[in-house]
Specification:
The structure is a single chain. α15 crosses α17 (413-423). This protein is of the alpha/beta class. The strands form 5 sheets. Strands 2-1-5-9-10-11-13 form a 7-stranded mixed β-sheet. It has helices at 6-9, 55-65, 74-81, 87-95, 101-107, 149-153, 179-187, 207-217, 237-243, 260-265, 271-281, 304-314, 346-360, 364-380, 387-404, 408-411, 413-423, and strands at residues 10-13, 19-20, 36-37, 40-41, 121-125, 133-134, 157-160, 163-166, 194-198, 225-230, 248-254, 266-267, 288-293, 295-296, 331-332. The protein has a domain at 6-119. The radius of gyration is 21 Å and the shape is globular. Helices cover 39% and strands 13% of the residues. It contains 17 helices and 15 strands. The longest helix has 18 residues, at 387-404.
Length: 424
């Protein structure tokens, strides 16, 4: 029966300051992700423990307690049905020492209200300031996209939950610069077990240091695990000592391919710098654990096995070591649809899949992971002609390689063949 601890314990903040249940809610691109109360969308300025009793989360809790998948949770439903270790499963396991399904039953009223709401986890996207312009990203998550979004995607505006933003107005994602908002957050952190930071690139966002110091000054730090999604291009020196004051640090290192292919997807990163940063992370204190995360899309899919084998051969002590923490936690890109593997036709998908599967079919956990992704592809694939995302893929493939002055037919030969198929 489906269950997840998140609707009882967790609140997520989007890059623009809106509140949502979690970063996976509605990732399949269907419906609104924002939390609502009395018909009104909620933002970070209103965050407190009573946020857990908003209308959205009350309904999600009722759905789970009556053994139904909530509308918000389609991504976990599809991934779970495909045999993948979906987020609802690993979050519930992580929380099991202090929160169980029986606790959920005991604490939840008939209308879904929590008698004693307490936020235990925060997932914070602290703006969109970033030093990379990744192919699968957009201006709402990377400020480096502002200059090139119109050139590559042909658009001056972008949509976040029905709100239209302009690339010419970069000030819509600076909620973390608001001191009142930050102080309100700190006022509601006394019971936290964990904070996950995203951006942008969170560790280079200016007020991040100030916020961590606030947690230290209030005496909360020693009880809190910090998790970061980072692009592995830098680790600011000040963080090394500050991290020692927290219970544990997890670094989710976003890497999509080996070498120049990674630089092409995560432009304008440099592989030498990424590799040096990985080796530095591997020397950090024992309270720091690290794992890699690959965003599987039409470009990165053909490189997945090569990257996994390279990571294995490095024999890192800390990174992807199951004794220290989770191993690689790759996930699919659902948006933009032009880069989603769901847009591939079955013969195209099988061509790419077979090329990577044959490289790792002798390695148990990687063989299973790929088999799960194959099953998931057939759960989510577009069954209609899907002409719009396919034609857009042709256009952006050519735009990216021209803009970045790279030969993508050599960097992404399978994706290039897909592009030629659709170009015809």
């Amino acid at each position: 029966m489906p269950f997840c601890s998140i609707p009882w314990t967790h609140v997520a903040i989007k890059n623009n300051g809106s509140l949502r249940m979690c970063s996976h809610s509605q990732s399949l691109g269907e419906g609104n992700t924002i939390l609502h109360k009395d018909g009104k969308p909620l933002s970070v300025a209103e965050l407190n423990h009573e946020t857990l009793n908003c209308d959205t989360l009350k309904q999600v809790r009722l759905d789970f307690l009556t053994d139904r998948w909530p509308e918000q949770c389609k991504r976990c439903q599809k991934e779970s049905e495909a045999g993948k270790n979906s987020r609802n499963l690993w979050e519930t396991i992580r929380a099991s020492q202090w929160f169980t399904k029986q606790d959920a039953i005991d604490l939840t009223w008939k209308d879904g209200t929590l008698g004693k709401p307490v936020i235990r986890d925060l997932d914070m996207r602290i703006g969109n300031f970033c030093n990379l312009r990744c192919a699968m990203c957009f201006p709402g998550e990377s400020s480096l996209w502002y200059k090139e979004y119109e050139e590559i995607f042909g658009k001056q505006t972008f949509d976040v939950d029905g709100n239209i933003y302009s690339v010419n107005e970069p000030g819509n994602f600076d909620w973390f610069d608001n001191e009142e908002c930050v102080n309100n957050l700190l006022d509601n952190c006394q019971y936290l077990n964990k904070i996950k930071f995203g951006g942008g690139e969170p560790i280079i966002i200016k007020r991040h240091r100030q916020f961590l110091q606030g947690l230290v000054d209030r005496g909360y730090a020693k009880n809190i695990e910090l998790e970061y999604s980072i692009n592995v291009t830098t680790i600011p020196a000040y963080l090394i000592d500050m991290w020692k004051k927290f219970r544990r640090i997890k670094l989710c290192c976003s890497i999509d391919a080996y070498g120049e292919a990674n630089d092409a997807i995560r432009w304008p990163s440099k592989w030498k710098k990424v590799e040096d940063t990985l080796r530095f992370i591997d020397t950090l204190d024992n309270n720091v654990i690290a794992f890699t995360s690959t965003t599987l899309n039409i470009l990165s899919l053909e490189h997945y096995s090569t990257l996994m084998l390279w990571l294995r051969d490095q024999r890192f002590k800390k990174i992807n070591n199951p004794m220290w923490g989770p191993m690689d936690i790759s996930h699919l890109v659902y948006n933009p649809k032009s880069l989603s593997i769901a847009t591939l036709e079955p013969n195209q998908f099988e061509r790419i899949f077979n090329s990577i599967y044959n490289k790792v079919k002798h390695i148990g956990h990687l063989e299973k992971k790929l088999s799960d992704y194959r099953s998931l592809y057939y759960k989510i694939r577009n069954t209609n002609d899907a002409w719009h995302p396919r034609s857009e893929f042709v256009r952006i493939f050519e735009k990216f390689q021209r803009h970045q002055n790279q030969d993508w037919s050599k960097l992404f030969p399978y994706a290039h063949s897909v592009m030629l198929d659709w170009k015809k």
